[in-house]
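Our preliminary data section would be incomplete without showing what the modeling component actually yields. Below, a chain of 80 amino acids is followed by its predicted structure, encoded as C-alpha cells that our downstream tools consume directly.
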Amino acid sequence: MTAAIKDGYLERIADPQGNVARKICLIALGAERLSDSRAQSIASLEQILGDWSCAEIEQFAKYLNRFNSSIEEYSEAKRA
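Predicted structure:
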C-alpha cells in the first residue's frame, strides 16, 4: 500500500468521522490505472477463452469458484 501511495495511485485522508485512524482513497491516476488493468485483463481472457464453448466456460467458472472457496476455507481454518 505504501508503494501505491508513493506512486500516486492512493492517498491517505483523514477519517470523515473524526477518528484517529486514517483512510485510504483511490485518486484519479489510480482509478485510471485500475481501469486500464481491468480492460487489459478482460481482453486477454477474451483471447484465451475465445475458442471455448459456453458450456466449457461455465464449467471452468464453477471449478474456479469451488477452488477459491476451498482456499478461503483453508485460510480460515489455519487462522483459527
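The first helix runs from residue 2 to 6. The CA atoms of residues 24 and 66 lie 31 Å apart. Preliminary results of this kind motivate Aim 1 of the renewal.
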